[in-house]
Design a protein that fits this description.
With 424 residues, this protein is α+β, with helices and mostly antiparallel strands. It has two domains: 6-198 and 387-419, Zn peptidases (Aminopeptidase, 3-Layer(aba) Sandwich), CATH 3.40.630.10; 224-336, Alpha-Beta Plaits. 35% of the residues lie in helices and 21% in strands. The protein has helices at 18-29, 47-62, 107-122, 149-154, 160-164, 174-181, 207-211, 249-267, 303-324, 343-355, 370-374, 401-420, and strands spanning 66-69, 75-78, 89-93, 131-135, 196-202, 215-221, 223-232, 236-237, 272-274, 278-281, 287-288, 291-300, 327-336, 339-340, 360-365, 380-385. Strands 1, 2, 3, 4, 5, 6, 14, 15 and 16 form a nine-stranded mixed sheet that branches. Strands 7, 9, 10, 12 and 13 form a five-stranded antiparallel sheet that branches. Helix 3 (107-122) crosses helix 12 (401-420) and helix 10 crosses helix 12. The longest helix has 22 residues, at 303-324. It starts with 17 loop residues before the first helix and ends with a helix. Bound molecules: glyoxylic acid and manganese (II) ion (2 copies).
């Protein structure tokens, strides 16, 4: 067998088929395509998500992989021919998108994983353990909160029964929608613990492009806090009601939006804050709103600072509501502490990139990822490729083919090295 150990210093001669990978990204991106753009919308467990799932599953089937679907709809495809019970080296990501998404976020990690496995199987490499690629349900959290739902349930971070009852804005449940699209599977939850997990993903930010570096070795993911606020006031006529007699939830929402922006600026460092949803009822020009629903997304690499930001935010909400005479209820949609990845896996990524002649830097992820859930159960790290103009969660999201191929080749090298390493 070829010596694949990290100590061997051998550079794998194998290369992925970059053209096949990009043509699959394009084919998948055509499902739910947003007209006139290169973006797509495949919110989790919609008909378009089902069509995307079916397409990727066809490719996995054609390769003869062993495919399982678990109770939260995660799909894992493993190289055949190994004794059951030998833990695989796993890669993967998600194929759901936000409503204004691109074709690379998540999809790259899944299709690059498939490409790595196809490359290894075609080369008939003799591996000590199988490689596996998965996609995890509702990573985006754009339809069902929290984000990373499928991988959270896979690693035992949320009970399956609870996850299946989560509803979207129309009251449709995860369980009902999984059943409707035919992806309510029976593979056990929590899922089997992989030997190691490594995820390739686009950076979704501007750092690699700005610094002219081709790849990132991701060593951490920042903490995430999502809150939904429902603010109830008194709807009334916009022309007849004196300002002093108003109880306007829209004004309170606006104050909260400005407050969290200023809080992030005041905290500085890694602190970010976003009000992505501000939804007025009845949303009419001449009516003071009765109700506003809004979301606040706070993130920081430092958990204590994130907690301090949350405390200030909640105190401000209470004061602003009292001052306007409105009521507010707060619901936590997602709360994940920051995550540190396995240094040995990050080092393997750096070494593989260097051997392939690619520039690489260590970095922290600003976005949430399925890998951060796997870090709870096995050695894990991530590879980032640059995002043109640093744009993601947007239809203009784009990554250059050469960068995609570079990332996939490093994924290939790292998966082979992980397969040969005992990591104990
Ligand atoms: C998931 O994409 C996130 O919001 O970080
Ligand atoms: Mn993603
Ligand atoms: Mn995303």
């Amino acid at each position: 067998m070829t010596d694949l150990s990290p100590e061997s210093g051998s550079v794998q001669p194998l290369r992925v088929n970059g053209e096949r990978l990009i043509s699959r990204l394009d084919e998948l991106g055509a499902i739910g395509a947003i007209e006139g753009t290169i973006g797509c919308a495949r919110l989790a467990l919609t008909d378009d998500d089902k069509a995307g799932r079916d397409l990727v599953r066809t490719w996995m089937d054609e390769l003869g992989l062993d495919i399982t679907v678990d109770g939260i709809g995660n799909v894992i495809a493993t190289m055949p021919g190994f004794d059951h019970g030998i833990a695989p080296v796993m890669t993967g990501s998600h194929i759901d998108t936000v409503a204004t998404g691109g074709r690379y976020d998540g999809n790259l990690g899944v299709l690059a994983g498939l490409e790595v496995i196809e490359t290894v199987m075609t080369a008939r490499l003799d591996l000590p353990r199988p490689l596996a690629v998965g996609w995890f349900t509702d990573e985006e959290g754009a339809r069902f909160a929290p984000d990373m739902l499928g991988s959270l349930v896979y690693v035992g971070g949320l009970a399956l029964e609870e996850a299946l009852t989560i509803t979207d804005r129309d009251g449709l449940s995860v369980g009902g929608e999984l059943e409707r699209i035919g992806y309510l599977g029976s593979a056990p939850i929590p899922g089997a613990v992989p030997h190691a997990f490594v995820e390739l993903h686009i950076e979704q930010g501007p750092i690699l492009e700005d610094e002219g570096i081709q790849l990132g070795a991701v060593e951490a993911v920042q903490g995430i806090s999502w809150t939904e606020l429902t603010i109830i006031g008194q709807s009334c006529h916009a022309g007849t009601t004196p300002m002093r007699l108003r109880r306007d939830p829209g004004v309170v929402a606006a104050r909260i939006n400005v407050f969290v922006r200023e809080l992030a600026e005041r905290f500085g460092g890694a602190q970010v804050a976003t009000c992505g949803v501000v939804s007025h009822v009845p949303n009419l020009v001449n009516v003071v709103p009765s109700k506003v629903t809004m979301t606040v997304d706070l993130r920081n690499t430092d958990d204590a600072t994130l907690e301090a930001a949350e405390a200030e935010f909640h105190a401000f909400v209470a004061d602003a509501a009292a001052a306007e005479g409105v009521t507010v209820t707060a619901r936590s949609l997602a709360r994940f502490a920051s995550v540190e990845f396995d240094d040995r896996v990050a080092e393997m990524i750096e070494a593989a990139a260097a051997e392939r002649g690619h520039s690489i830097r260590r970095m922290c992820s600003g976005a949430g990822h399925d890998a951060q859930m796997f870090a709870r159960i096995c050695p894990t790290a991530m590879i980032f490729t640059p995002s043109v103009n640093g744009i993601s969660h947007n239809v203009t999201e784009y990554t250059e083919p050469a960068d995609i191929e570079a990332g996939a080749n490093v994924l290939l090298d790292v998966m082979l090295r992980l397969a040969a390493s005992d990591l104990s």
